[in-house]
């Protein structure tokens, strides 16, 4: 296991914040994981494991051991009459993996195309986009349990997934994911539940023309590229706040005050509503707002950006300013999506 001393993490987080790690360890095989934990514990040093750094706010130098998940590998693991089971190691790039599954003829992950980061991080916040959540396509995962020092296999049910949430959020230092197994149907059907995708394919659906997983993949990439800044050009972590969930009474009261309120039923059984956090922030006048070297993306108010040379501290100060204004205006609390290291 290669370890660098006092290494900058600038290239390892999509905001491009220039903080350093005391020890930066490259985890390239499964056995590196217990070794990494052992080293940190022997020295009673703190530790953390990152993938692509696309869901992090690094607001201070990191003490102790920082592990970069780089274990590679992907394969058809098993199949039944109805499903294929595909395994990918935690350090695989998520988007490349989705692309590869389609090349192999396995549809099912295409709605989650172009989400940055690694396979191993996808269960942590139960990634979701364009009408699909990871929990709908994951079968199980393998992880090192840092408490018992044993390897475990966790099923979807054991991961306790919900909106941008999982068992890994409740107990952040317990498991290090080493691989994820996906269960994809052999009889593929397009998932057009997301309104923008339904609209894009309405003509084909009406004319009963064939839609392929690659068609959906390309469309998702096209829509996402038009809406979200490319982190290689403008530092960001995608959506910075969760879409807040409110009760039906709260929703009605807000709707009375703001007839243009953008909200969706939070689940199929009715009751709670999910508010579009970007709309709330936009209404408070923050879209395109710049505060020194950080700011709010001009095309999408839900995305905070580093214009260059900004720091995590500056970004968190801006986030707080937005939270206060949104709460004063709508009495709705915004919570931050990326994981903060300060
Ligand atoms: C432009 C852009 C668009 C985005 N769009 C979406 C979107 O549509 N939907 C969505 O859900 N997210 C989105 N994200 C957020 C992000 O891409 C995902 O959360 C992604 O899964 C994070 O992967 P990562 O490897 O970069 O994780 P990191 O940022 O490196 O880590 C995130 C957290 O996971 C933990 N972690 C990472 N790897 C492991 C592991 N192997 N075992 C245990 N813990 C681990 C880390 O400790 C950290 O707490 C977007 C981000 C960007 C920059």
Describe this structure in words.
A hairpin with a 6-residue loop joins β18 and β19. This protein folds into 3 domains: 67 residues, 2-Layer Sandwich (Uridine Diphospho-n-acetylenolpyruvylglucosamine Reductase, domain 2); 152 residues, Uridine Diphospho-n-acetylenolpyruvylglucosamine Reductase, domain 3 (2-Layer Sandwich), CATH 3.30.465.10; 107 residues, UDP-N-acetylenolpyruvoylglucosamine reductase, C-terminal domain (Uridine Diphospho-n-acetylenolpyruvylglucosamine Reductase, domain 1, Alpha-Beta Complex). The model has no long low-confidence stretch (mean pLDDT 96). 27% of the residues lie in helices and 28% in strands. The strands form 6 sheets. It has a 5-stranded antiparallel beta sheet with strand order 6-7-12-10-11. The protein has 10 helices and 20 strands. The chain is α+β, with helices and mostly antiparallel strands and 342 residues long. It binds flavin-adenine dinucleotide. Flavin-adenine dinucleotide (FAD) binds next to β3, β8, β12 and β13.
């Amino acid at each position: 296991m290669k370890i660098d001393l006092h290494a900058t993490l600038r290239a390892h987080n999509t905001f491009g914040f220039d903080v350093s790690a005391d020890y930066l360890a490259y985890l390239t095989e499964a056995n590196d994981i217990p070794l990494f934990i052992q080293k940190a514990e022997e020295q009673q040093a703190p530790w953390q494991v990152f993938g692509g750094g696309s869901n992090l706010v690094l607001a201070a130098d990191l003490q102790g051991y920082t592990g970069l998940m780089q274990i590679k590998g992907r394969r058809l693991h098993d199949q039944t009459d109805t499903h294929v089971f595909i395994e990918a190691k935690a350090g695989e790039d998520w988007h490349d993996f989705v692309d590869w599954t389609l090349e192999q003829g396995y549809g099912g992950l295409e709605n989650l195309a172009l989400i940055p980061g690694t396979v191993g991080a996808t269960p942590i916040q139960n990634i979701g986009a364009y009408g699909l959540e990871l929990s709908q396509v994951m079968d199980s995962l393998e992880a090192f349990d840092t408490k018992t020092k044993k390897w475990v296999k966790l099923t979807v049910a054991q991961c306790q997934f919900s909106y941008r949430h999982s068992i890994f959020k409740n107990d952040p230092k317990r498991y290090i994911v080493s691989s994820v197994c996906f269960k994809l149907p052999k009889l593929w059907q397009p998932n057009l539940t997301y309104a923008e995708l339904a609209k894009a394919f309405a003509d084909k659906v009406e004319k009963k023309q064939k839609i392929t997983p690659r068609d959906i993949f390309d469309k998702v990439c096209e829509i996402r590229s038009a809406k979200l800044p490319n982190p290689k050009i403008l530092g960001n972590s995608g959506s910075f706040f969760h879409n807040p969930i409110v009760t039906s009474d709260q929703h009605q009261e807000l709707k009375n005050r703001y007839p243009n309120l953008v909200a969706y039923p939070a689940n199929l059984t009715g009751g709670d509503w999910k508010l579009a956090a970007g709309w709330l922030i936009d209404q408070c006048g923050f879209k395109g707002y710049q505060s020194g070297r950080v700011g709010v993306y001009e095309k999408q108010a839900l995305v905070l950006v580093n214009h260059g040379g900004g720091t995590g501290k500056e970004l968190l100060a801006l986030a707080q300013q937005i939270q206060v204004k949104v709460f004063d205006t709508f009495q709705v609390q915004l919570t931050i999506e990326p994981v903060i290291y300060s």
